[in-house]
């Protein structure tokens, strides 16, 4: 019971800690205006145009940190605060999403792999728990194993997401520096926002891996009991 409580606390605390880090960094640097006075939209447009991505559109979207790049529609979507904002945080987030657009243009391998995993991972994450729970409850090993395989695909998606996100952040920093969008003393702030955001993906992958490992061990234990 004690070990399960510790495990539960770990998988609960990790994502909460990551969320607090990203919210703290974003809040801090959303109050720091960038020296050029450019909005997130203007930063995104400049980065896209400088890389020949004139056909990629930029749209405002609702929600807090709902920013993302849609590779199917070829659209960078920025939350209102970052679309209109002049802060270091807005600049960093906008540049990061443009990093994904550049990845798409260059046919970045991990982005392609992640995109190919989306339908299977989505199905796996929604179905795996049902199969695993039923399999363990009724001692149906094959059903439990199928659920674990589906979960493994969903976990693989989480793991593949890590290099995609880190690479997009690296591209973002390179772009804002090379284009003279930020000064040297502003680079630290932009990096802090991007690193904090990356922690959420690391935390999600870590929790997913721990859950997968737990079910694998339970499956092995069930078979040993037989």
From TrEMBL:
| Membrane-spanning ranges | 6-26, 117-138, 144-164, 193-220
Mind listing the UniProt keywords for this protein, alphabetically? Membrane, Transmembrane, Transmembrane helix
Task: Name the Pfam families for this protein.
Answer: Zn_peptidase_2
Q: Does the keyword Membrane apply?
A: yes
Q: Would you say which domain of life the source belongs to?
A: Bacteria
> Which PANTHER family does the annotation name?
MEMBRANE PROTEASE YUGP-RELATED
Return the protein name: Zn-dependent protease
Which species is listed as the source?
A: Caldibacillus thermoamylovorans
């Amino acid at each position: 019971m004690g070990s399960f409580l510790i495990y539960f606390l770990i998988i609960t605390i990790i994502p909460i800690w990551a969320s607090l880090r990203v919210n703290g960094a974003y809040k801090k640097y959303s109050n720091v205006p960038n020296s050029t006075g450019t909005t997130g939209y203007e930063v995104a447009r400049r980065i896209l145009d400088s890389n020949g991505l004139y056909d990629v559109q930029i749209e405002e979207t609702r929600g807090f940190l709902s920013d993302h790049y849609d590779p199917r529609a070829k659209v960078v979507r920025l939350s209102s605060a970052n679309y209109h904002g002049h802060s270091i945080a807005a600049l960093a987030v906008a540049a990061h999403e443009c990093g994904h657009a550049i990845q798409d243009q260059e046919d970045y391998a991990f982005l392609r792999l992640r995109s190919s995993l989306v339908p299977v991972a989505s199905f796996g994450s929604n179905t795996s728990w049902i199969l695993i729970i039923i399999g363990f409850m009724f001692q149906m090993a094959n059903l439990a194993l199928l659920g674990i395989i589906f979960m493994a695909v969903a976990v693989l998606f989480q793991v593949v997401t890590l290099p995609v996100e880190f690479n997009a952040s690296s591209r973002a920093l390179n772009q804002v520096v090379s284009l003279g969008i930020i000064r040297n003393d502003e680079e630290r702030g932009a990096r802090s926002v991007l690193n904090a955001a990356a922690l959420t993906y690391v935390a999600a992958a870590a929790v997913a891996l721990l859950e997968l490992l737990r079910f694998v061990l339970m499956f092995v234990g069930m078979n040993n009991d037989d």
